[in-house]
Amino acid sequence: MVTIKKIINKIGRSIRFKRRANLFYSQLGEDLIVRHIFSQLGIYSPFYIDIGAHHPSFLNNTFLFYRSGASGLNIEPDPFLFKEIAKRRPRDINLNVGVSFNGQEEKIDFYIMSARSLNTFSKAEAERVQAFGSYSITEVTKVSTVNINNLVKNYFKDGRIDFLTVDVEGLDFEIIKTIDFDLIKPKVICVETLSYAEDKSEQKNHTLIDYIIAKNYFVYADTYVNTILVDATVWAQR
Questions:
Q1: Which one of 37, 45, 65, 75 has the lowest number of neighbouring Cβ atoms within 10 Å?
Q2: Dihedral, CA atoms, 67, 71, 76, 79, nearest 10 degrees?
């Protein structure tokens, strides 16, 4: 016999399942959008590269895929944040380095902010953020940088990259410009395209978006802070 209690319990389980199913870890649900794209492409365990991973799950664009069994490469220059990533994402390749924004591999200054999500290799960006008054530079340390193309050659011989996400506070365009798209052709790219501001002066980086579009991508979605682009050829063949 079906009782009211059983019906209520069933509804409760359904609601809890739906909440779990729609749980996201990225800033504005970008990971859910990307998951939907991959479902359309028939990819259920995407290989990813996360440049500026920040945290193993919080504000992270790849943890949703990791917890579903996928794996990839996390790059995080902050030694403090890196320890937590390495601890909680053991199935991934985790590197405590930065990605070069000029193609050179060297040790350069890394600016650690009082809000670590705003860490950057850009002195100008660090000082610009500090000038708003809410956050400050707490430490400057030397961190090694790597050329992204060399990294892919060393670690991924088949060149398969399903998802590339880039969030490096002020240097996203510079890093994207170093990528050899003949070597590295992610099916989906998520990149921060809005500058940080506290006085409503934020600006959208349309030049960065147009640059990626020129590499045969199209904008699938935009969350204002981040833009998600898809390889047009791959999408046409879905």
A1: 45
A2: 70
Distances (CA, A) of 133 to 76, 112, 120, 129, 199: 26, 15, 17, 8, 11
User: What pLDDT was estimated at residue 22?
Assistant: 59
Is residue 19 assigned to a domain? Answer: no
Query: In this structure, are residues 76 and 82 in contact, taking their beta carbons and an 8 Å threshold?
Result: yes
In degrees, to the nearest 5, what angle opens at C-alpha 75 toward C-alphas 131 and 211? 70
The answer to whether 35 and 64 have CB atoms below 8 angstroms apart is yes
Q: Which domain holds residue 183?
A: 24-99+150-236
pLDDT value at position 21?
52
Residues 215 and 191 sit within 8 Å (Cβ to Cβ): no
Report which of 146, 136, 139, 155 is spatially closest to residue 92, judged by C-alpha positions.
155
In angstroms, rounded to a whole number, what is the distance separating the alpha carbons of residues 34 and 117?
Answer: 21
| Bridge pairing between strands 48-51 and 217-222 | unpaired
Half-sphere exposure of 232 (CA within 13 A, CB side): 8
Global confidence as pTM: 0.89
Q: How many structural domains comprise the chain?
A: 1
Closest CA to 63 of 37, 88, 94: 88
* CATH number of the domain encompassing residue 204: 3.40.50.150
Q: Is residue 121 part of a domain?
A: no
Q: Which structure tokens are listed for 94?
A: 């985790």
pLDDT-flagged residues of the chain (< 70): 1-22, 157
